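Cross-posted from the bioinformatics board.
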Amino acid sequence: MSKLKSFKLCYICGVFTSLYVLTPAKLTFELDFYTEMAIKITDECINCGACEPECPNNAIYDAGAAWRYSDGTSLRGLIAFPDGTARDAEEARPAVSDEVYFIVSDKCTECVGFHDEPQCAAVCPVDCCVDDEDIRETEEELLAKKAFLHLE
Ligand code: SF4
Ligand code: SF4
């Protein structure tokens, strides 16, 4: 049986919930301030592969590789997102880059809850794992994403 889950924030309890079906839309809202930035890989990447095994969420993929929400996570079946869409966790999705390694931002928690710093950035020999200024998330959101990905 498919499960429907979401990153939405409960207005009553103030924490993210992984059970979208139990959280009416009118009780959710999005935070409008952010303190953290997601990590992205720039085209300076030399495709050495050092970062990929270090990611606790399996958010890093080789150039041209298909990716899945279910890879390295506990997500299975249908999952729901704040924009109202539902996606199949096990569906193969197109590579973000055909040239260099890439990070799936939906699966990146900046290593919050696992490590003190982003592990990809820590091991990258050419320092091309950098902050993505277009994606900002609070520590609370990142912890909620971690719990969502791993059904904690
Ligand atoms: Fe993975 Fe951490 Fe890098 Fe995000 S910051 S891609 S979770 S290793
Ligand atoms: Fe690219 Fe750095 Fe990852 Fe090596 S460690 S694959 S250079 S992002």
